[in-house]
Amino acid sequence: MLRNMNLMKKLIVLLILFVVIPILVLDLVVAKKLESITEEQVGNALLQLVRGSHLTLDRESSDFEEKTEKIMISQEIQQLASIPSSSEYERFEIFKTLDKYLSNYSTNAIRYSMFFSDTDKQYSFVPNSDILNNGIFYATDLNALSWYKSVSQAKGKGVLRVIDKFGYNPNNVKTVAYLRQLNSIYNGETVIGYLLVSGIETPLQQDFSPFDKYADGQVMLLDQENTVLASNTEKFQIGSTVSAAADKVEGVCKLKEAGVEYMHVLHTSEATNTKLLMRVPVQSIIIDHISVQRLVDWIMFIYFLILFLASIYFIQSILKPISRLARITNSYHPGRPLAISMHSESKNEIVLLSNHFIRMTDRLNQTIYDQYELELKHKEIELSILHTQINPHLLYNTLESVYWHTFMEGATESAEMIKDLSLIMRIGLSKGKLLIPVMEEMNHAEAYVRLQLFRYEYAFQVHWDIEEEAKKYLVPKVILQPIIENAILHGIKHMSQDGELWITVRVRSGLVMISVEDNGYRQVDIEMLNAILKGKENNRGFGIINVQKRIQLHFGSSYGLRYSHREDQGVRALIEIPAVLDENEWKQPPA
């Protein structure tokens, strides 16, 4: 699918597949993981907090236990077990003494009270608990009291119970009391009375202060029946019963109630048989995480916005120029001018490439036009050459006629000169070929040498040494004549009968090696000759430069002509060219 899309669609698809979707999935996974980690860490922290707070509440109960223990073993209480029935005055004094004794322990919040059995109604003068908030109370039937059964079963151990407040209480307001049966220290089976410490929810609730930082947290101290003993919320009043959530195993769990998910943290104390339950909405626990996640979402939104703007810029600055370049490339036909103009100068490499391509097409079109014109001119030159070849052919045929006429008249030497001149012209023409066999080139050279011998009255000698195998290989035509001419003119021309010329042709290691040597006595600057061949000396040696260039045009810069000194005296010119039988075999371009 991607293969058939253009670059713009590919960019959008790749951005969605490899940038947008991975980032969104990663954000979702990380958010869920962080939320889970946050809940776990907060849950563990809350469990430690609840455990610590419960220990504080247990110490509060321990304080009441110590105080009630002190009251129970006091002389004022223990002597009640041995006081016989007395007069009403004496009973009043006993009541008055006990009431004064308990008043030392009571405060505005914590109130100490005692209940005694009075089946004979001897203390009927004492106000009951419906009138007084605390004090000494006598009951004709202790079983009628709601708390009596649980306290008597505790056998002197303290228990926490929710009871109605003493005194005027039309609304049945509840309070939490620490209740304890007072036994004789002399006879453990003798029950003296019952001590009640009411209003202890106040110090218990003050111990909930560590939970104040959790504004939505609900903290409750429960008894074994899940009755609320103390709470920091009005939703759960003292004496109300909490749902079965309090029956969960001690620890941390999540429960959903009325569509709201809560984290429940429960700790049970074996010392006081109470439970401390904290309920916190999960939403409030991860509120900081939600705030951070919102910040991350905004950052992602800004990032995607920047990515979108960057993509638009990328499309405008890269993809559109590339698309334009593709259209230009597709619409271009060699020789036809483009109908698209260049952009204004820009540093954008794609725009520069597009402009360069347009310039290149203009140059290519111009080259095509120039090539067309060149071909036309080449055709004209070919026609001109064909016309000019008519005159050499006419001259060659005329020389043949003169040769036979001269030979018939008996001027043999002149006839031979005419014949050599005709041979030179014939080989020079060579039917328009540029490469000819070594044999033909040697014939041409021999004809030229015979003419020079006649001209200089045989003032020098010529030695020919040509391998038979070398005669079949091809060489550029007329490359020996300029070299032989230089050897005669600058080497042996004025040596009378002492001048000698050696022309040798060999085939070695795939090379045709042609050597022209003379024994000229004049000192020759070989370095200058080689510099001329390398193009370092201008306006000199046109003949040998022509030979060098024609060899290298055909066979490359690795081949050609070079000069050196002979071992005795004179100069040696050496031509090296590859051994080629067919000019189509050699396709190496010239350097």
Automatic annotation (TrEMBL):
UniProt protein name: HAMP domain-containing protein
Matching Pfam families: HATPase_c (PF02518), His_kinase (PF06580)
InterPro entries from the UniProt entry: Bact_2-comp_sensor_kinase, HAMP_dom, HATPase_C_sf, HATPase_dom, Sig_transdc_His_kin_internal
Location in the cell: Cell membrane
Keyword Transmembrane applies: yes
Membrane topology per record: Multi-pass membrane protein
Originating species: Paenibacillus anseongense
The organism's place on the tree of life at top rank: Bacteria
